[in-house]
Amino acid sequence: MSTGKLESNRSLSLGSTRSTNAQATAAMFSTDTSRFFEPCAATATSFLFSHGSTILCLQRDTLALERRFQRHTEEVLLISVDNLSEQGAGRLVVSYDSGQSAIVWDVLTGDEIARFVSYEHIRVAAWMRNGNVAFGNSQGNVILFEPSTSEHISARTIFDPITAIAPAADCRTYAIGYMNGSILIAALQPSFTILHTLMTTRAPSPIVTLAWHGSSSRQKSDMLATQTLDGDLRVWSIAKSTAAEDTARIVRVLNKSDGIFEPGPNWLAWSKNGRILQFSEGQTSIWDVRTKHVSYEPVSTPEVVSGLAIHGPSATLFVIGPSNNILQYNLNPPTLVANVQHPPVITPPSPPVSIEEQKESVQAPVPAAAAAAAAAAPPQPLEPAPHESVGEIGPLSSFQKNNANEVGSVASLHQISQEMDRHEEKRQERSGASPVSSTNRSRAASVSSQSSGGRRHMASSISSKSTTRSSNDGTLMSLGSSFHSSRDSLSTGNSSPVSSRSRPRGSRLRQEVMRSPDEPAKK
């Protein structure tokens, strides 16, 4: 696509009496005028609006949430729905985020169709009847994007931010509004050519909305509604021919008063039966422009409005009110249909986790029910692991290895001590030796009672086994002497806080019973 130079045409669109005021207005409203409202759009079956980088799709009439579109990584700035082309048929949506990425996706399935990344900030987007998308950026360029092939072409217009764009039904003519208040009717192919320049006697104000009214091919002109930032609403008759005698003319001026309006949120859209829906000065009105004497009818919308969208053929209005309330209206006559709140879902940031909290989560105590169930289970025969030394106590070692995260439970220690006593008594009875004395049992009980000081005390006594294990690994004793010495060392090692840190590990005699040399061998 070739681009034409517009030095000769700029003077035509910007008269000498308007140049100074246009520069002052552009400096005053250098921010994005579209940010007065939240991005939203409507189809015949759905209403779409954004929460940050997420787009919510609501069902018409019930306003129930159907799906969330979460392919954007930055805040969504623009949403536009294809209600014109046969390919889109109310299904295709284009959304643009602050990361300068535009995504075309299917509203019924949520599938991504195409993606476009721009070099300059895009301010407006509009669908065309042929299924393409027209973007207007901050450098005054119009970008035509084809979703089916992901190809695009760019046309340079005047060097001023584009604030509104409306492709005509023939897909060759475009109404373009600028920050300086200019409105151009132009063709982009084969080169940029200005067909009409819309001028008024009012002071220039940024253009916020341009909207064509549908007409038949037999008509010689089309109707174009324009809305400025200061609330000036006009309807123009634009001749389809480019002859010099066929000029654009104003057919309606829709102002409620002749006073000067303050710049602020303003919006318009065509509705059913040739009526115009306007939001200006905090009020929503329906203008009937079919008659010579124009009249309007108010719509009872909330005082605070942060977004508006309309599906013109069905005369259905959607409004984003305060506290994220979504309201739906039927406009023939104006009636509230539904009012549902959809607050944003914001995941709170996770707090930082300190080292102490990580240790506590690892060494969390076992619940009482789980400890009781583990103690009630019958003891399983233990086989010595290849890396275990002879001086380790089998049941206690297994408990320490498998339950390192469960120390600190007094009930668990007491039950384990009792299990160990019963285990030793059975082995002693089978070998013919005397059972464990009651003194040793009381000592074992004192181990569990004195170990209730907390998980740190128990953990330190467990970790100290490796430092004192060598003192008991080198000696093999008879059944009586070795057993009593190990039981005494276990009980004594936990009788005082000082000695609990260096408690020696018992021998493996609880697991493998050794016979005395004097004891006759059994035949």
TrEMBL record:
<feature type="compositionally biased region" description="Basic and acidic residues">
    <location>
        <begin position="419"/>
        <end position="430"/>
    </location>
</feature>
<keyword id="KW-0805">Transcription regulation</keyword>
<feature type="compositionally biased region" description="Polar residues">
    <location>
        <begin position="472"/>
        <end position="494"/>
    </location>
</feature>
<dbReference type="GO" id="GO:0003712">
    <property type="term" value="F:transcription coregulator activity"/>
</dbReference>
<keyword id="KW-0694">RNA-binding</keyword>
<feature type="region of interest" description="Disordered">
    <location>
        <begin position="348"/>
        <end position="400"/>
    </location>
</feature>
<dbReference type="InterPro" id="IPR036322">
    <property type="entry name" value="WD40_repeat_dom_sf"/>
</dbReference>
<keyword id="KW-0804">Transcription</keyword>
<keyword id="KW-0539">Nucleus</keyword>
<keyword id="KW-0597">Phosphoprotein</keyword>
<feature type="compositionally biased region" description="Low complexity">
    <location>
        <begin position="364"/>
        <end position="377"/>
    </location>
</feature>
<feature type="region of interest" description="Disordered">
    <location>
        <begin position="418"/>
        <end position="523"/>
    </location>
</feature>
<dbReference type="InterPro" id="IPR015943">
    <property type="entry name" value="WD40/YVTN_repeat-like_dom_sf"/>
</dbReference>
<dbReference type="GO" id="GO:0003723">
    <property type="term" value="F:RNA binding"/>
</dbReference>
<dbReference type="GO" id="GO:0005634">
    <property type="term" value="C:nucleus"/>
</dbReference>
<feature type="compositionally biased region" description="Basic and acidic residues">
    <location>
        <begin position="509"/>
        <end position="523"/>
    </location>
</feature>
<feature type="compositionally biased region" description="Low complexity">
    <location>
        <begin position="441"/>
        <end position="453"/>
    </location>
</feature>
<protein>
    <recommendedName>
        <fullName>WD40 repeat-like protein</fullName>
    </recommendedName>
</protein>
<feature type="compositionally biased region" description="Low complexity">
    <location>
        <begin position="460"/>
        <end position="471"/>
    </location>
</feature>
<dbReference type="InterPro" id="IPR034605">
    <property type="entry name" value="PGC-1"/>
</dbReference>
<dbReference type="GO" id="GO:0045944">
    <property type="term" value="P:positive regulation of transcription by RNA polymerase II"/>
</dbReference>
